[in-house]
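Whiteboard transcription, Tuesday session. T.W. wrote the structure tokens on the left side:
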């Protein structure tokens, strides 16, 4: 993991401020859907934290340890009730499995365009998975889950 896993992760919140109204939009959608919510590419918690503060249980998934470390620092400053609503998971959104269902899954702002790469489990000689083909599919949702 190169991107956002260096010292520049500390500055992410200063240069990646989203678009006007995006936090409100995601919080309102989460409130409409109810708990639990999964946020892929949660980064430093810019949307995750206000969602939890609105009373929603939320799991934030990100592959950058430095971004999650900043999110954890922010969580330490929150009240116990809000902290109980948040779970952070370090994983790649292309290949994760959490073994549970969510009422809403979000991928805010630039996460898909900045981090999703085509994925194939076929290894390349000595270089791990091949970046060719299509992204790995999400598990099918059960009836009434979509």
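and on the right, the sequence the group agreed on:
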């Amino acid at each position: 993991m190169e991107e956002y896993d260096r010292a520049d992760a500390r500055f992410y919140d200063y240069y990646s401020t989203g678009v006007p109204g995006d936090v409100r939009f995601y919080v309102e959608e989460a409130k409409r859907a109810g708990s639990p919510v999964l946020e892929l590419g949660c980064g430093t918690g810019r949307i995750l934290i206000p969602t939890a503060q609105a009373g929603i249980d939320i799991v934030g998934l990100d592959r950058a340890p430095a971004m999650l470390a900043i999110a954890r620092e922010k969580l330490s400053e929150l009240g116990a009730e809000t902290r109980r609503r948040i779970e952070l998971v370090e994983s790649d959104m292309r290949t994760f499995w959490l073994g549970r269902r969510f009422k809403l899954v979000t991928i805010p702002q630039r996460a898909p365009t900045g981090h999703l790469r085509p994925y194939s489990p076929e290894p390349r000689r000595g270089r791990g998975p091949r970046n060719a083909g299509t992204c790995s599919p999400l598990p099918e949702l059960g009836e009434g889950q979509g």
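Someone added at the bottom: The chain has one domain: 7-130.
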